[in-house]
Design a protein that fits this description.
The chain is an alpha/beta fold. It contains five helices and nine strands. A hairpin with a 4-residue loop joins β3 and β4.
Length: 208
């Protein structure tokens, strides 16, 4: 079975940079054909946990994560439930994710107007489940470079809208090819570690 999941979204629940109401995010994502979305607020799990509850009330799967501003750049984290991780060195975050069975993904690695790991991601490639190769706030060139870099490192890459407004919802997503439903953080981590997925830009055909 195939699951369409937008892996990277921010809402007004916890991200001050966002003007996107979580209910609008859920409604528009559902209308766009997503099977689930990830809410990845900056440096906290609070909003994502609230979004999971609201999603359940609306009959839609929301998966909780966070975007951690590590010492070297922004990293999407799933299964790392701790608060106050902003500024954490990447090796410490990697150790924490391993201890808790989590998954880490460098966000927008070559976006120049954001806190991005860039080539530094290569130093820690062994602790990443994937790279974000398609991001809604990156240029085509920045996304191309990220995708090529992931391939060079032997990593798969995901797609995420990085939505902060209704205009940005469901622009990029990830199609998972899986035998098991993806219904929560744990099942998402299993699917990520399988590597059986591809990043997709809305309006373009998936190759899965």
């Amino acid at each position: 079975m195939k699951y369409k999941i937008d892996m990277h979204n921010h809402t007004t629940l916890s991200s001050q940079c966002s003007v996107l109401d979580v209910r609008d995010l859920i409604r528009l994502s559902k209308d766009a054909g997503m099977d689930a979305i990830c809410v990845t607020e900056h440096n906290t799990m609070y909003g994502a946990r609230r979004a999971v509850t609201i999603g359940a009330e609306m009959g839609f799967t929301v998966i909780a994560g966070q975007e951690i501003a590590s010492a070297s750049g922004d990293i999407l984290a799933f299964g790392v439930e701790a608060e106050g991780l902003q500024g954490i060195p990447v090796p410490e975050l990697c150790a924490l994710a391993k201890e808790r069975g989590g998954a880490l993904i460098p966000a927008h690695p070559f976006r120049t107007n954001a806190f991005s790991l860039g080539d530094t991601a290569a130093e820690y490639a062994g602790c990443f489940a994937a790279l974000e190769g398609m991001n809604g706030n990156c240029t085509d060139e920045q996304n191309r470079r990220a995708a090529e870099f992931a391939i060079k490192l032997g990593l798969p890459y995901i797609g995420g809208s990085d939505a902060h407004s209704i205009q940005m919802v469901a622009k990029y997503y990830t199609v998972f090819d899986t035998d098991s439903p993806i219904i929560d953080t744990r099942s998402l981590i299993i699917a990520l570690k399988s590597g059986q997925f591809t990043a997709v830009k809305a309006g373009e055909r998936s190759t899965v």
